[in-house]
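Shipment paperwork, digital attachment
Item: protein structure file
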Amino acid sequence: MKDDGGLRVSGMRVRYGDLTAVDGVSFTIGKGEILGLVGESGSGKSSVGRALAGLVPYEGDVTGAGPTQMVFQDPYGSLNPRLRIGDAVAEGLGRGGTRAVRKAEGLRLLGLVGLDEGVAGRYPRELSGGQRQRVALARALGARPSLLIADEITSALDVSVQGAVLNLVRELRGRLGLSVLFVSHDLAVVRYVCDAVAVMREGRIVESGTVEHVTEHPGHEYTKALLDAVPRLR
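Attachment content:
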């Protein structure tokens, strides 16, 4: 991965009481790169994302992260059901600016994620899962992050919708120069959207490299087992 001012994580540890969820994890994400962090449930991958987003304490060194935003698996749970979509996106802009300016910026962000202006006046319950995930992305982008953490953002979506959201992530990376940590249990999804991958097991990274190398020439038995669970990658 490139050393061009992107994120660098060294020796990260996350503990919940006596449980060590992340044990000495190190990786880098170059500016404009998408790193897939993949592993089974309980491997510690989501804890890494939450630590980088400031949601849980951690030990170790993190440099170059810049402003960071996290988008979660369940977009409905992350949106206030009482707020119209336009107001929900405006929340991500922080304070300041006139109402008209904030409204215009909210509409611009909705357009950036492929939603039309009519969505702004609707409530989360009136949108599909894919539309709600786009809203969550728009709200996150309102903070102008340099690092976007996407935590299982397609796992709750229909297969027919997943591709569109993945394409959107790649498009946003290209247009905005975002660095992305893409957390997933699905190596097929990671191979499609990511430049590089780090495989986690029991709180540690057991293998990392470019997506092509890791998926075509896995060196660790755990990676091979994950690939065996996704026959279409072989």
